[in-house]
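Weekly structure sync, notes
Attendees: PL, DS, HV (note-taker this week)

Item 1: NADH-quinone oxidoreductase subunit I
DS walked through the input record. Source organism listed as Streptomyces pactum. Sequence as pasted into the shared doc:
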Amino acid sequence: MPDNNSGQESSRTSWQNPVAGFGVTFANMFKKRITEQYPEYKKPTAPRFHGRHQLNRHPDGLEKCVGCELCAWACPADAIYVEGADNTDEERYSPGERYGRVYQINYLRCILCGLCVEACPTRALTMTNEYELADRSRASLIYTKEELLAGLTEGMVDTPHAIFPGMDEQDYYRGLVTEAAPGTERQVARSQGEEMPVDSEPAGPADVAGTSPGTSGAGGGAGSDRASGKEVRA
Ligand code: SF4
Ligand code: SF4
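Item 1 (cont.): predicted structure, written out as tokens:
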């Protein structure tokens, strides 16, 4: 049965629709306008914002990454590439048996979901609040280990160097190592082929690191790119 009111109903909606359609526009026309002054002013992110990744270090400068590849396996976007390698007494980058020799994150693929961080067993991988990841070339958006590795803070010495004398890998995770052993800088300088004056710094336990478990003969190893003191983004 035809609805007698349908004509009246449709004329009312046809009159109301444009008004309703512009309702949001009208409502916003009288609101205070906010212009973000980016990039002059960068609005602080939420504390747990998912930004660029960082590879962390132990308090003495050794790397936390053990090259296990769990982050790469967890990544839904296949954005992480890891190659692990064995530490040696002459060239040590992490306290344990293995370290991440090659580490890359492809920010053309990464969706900043954080699953890789959840998968990491050593808290080597975390995310910073840095969000400015645009660049002019595809290659520059594949971040290398040197770019991702955390900078050195007070008490840290760049790798490679021996573990803290008298400590083992577990002690690092128990928080017993709080800074580099005295004399660790001397090991790094030697690994770079630099001549150090004998009395330039006091001899320390790291100079006799062979007395501690698993740390024999840390000085005099071959140099590496990372040992060259290249500036890294923290
Ligand atoms: S944040 Fe997500 S997408 Fe990006 S590398 Fe980690 S797991 Fe992969
Ligand atoms: S970042 Fe963590 S999960 Fe990834 S390879 Fe290193 S230790 Fe393993």
